[in-house]
Write a structure and sequence with these properties.
The structure is a single chain. With 116 residues, the chain is mainly α. The protein has one domain: c-terminal domain of poly(a) binding protein, CATH 1.10.1900. It has five helices and no strands. Helix 2 packs across helix 4 (92-101), helix 3 (76-85) crosses helix 5 and helix 4 (92-101) packs across helix 5. The longest helix has 40 residues, at 32-71. The N and C termini lie far apart (86 Å).
Length: 116
Amino acid sequence: MSRSVNHVASRKRRKRILKLTRGYIGARKNVWTVAKNTWEKGLQYAYRDRKTKKRNFRSLWIQRINAAARLEGYSYSKLMGALNKSGIEINRKVLADLAMNHPEAFSAIVQKAKNG
């Protein structure tokens, strides 16, 4: 009996990954094993860097809050402690946006934290 190989399914699987690697350079786009390895490694990088992106943005927000807080005579840690003590629950993303785009609103929050 002859060997049964499902060429349709295997070709479809390969074509799907080769289509995803379009735009890559050299053998990475058209040699099956190289393209598959490159594509899989890319998925690993994407997974890892989604986590890194969150770290980087949090770091950026902290830097912006610290710079604006120092203009008000506070350090970042003292400001966050005062906000926590006065019961102002505002996240770093919003606080950094206020510090950059609405300095008067940021100053009002700092004053409220000082008094509270």
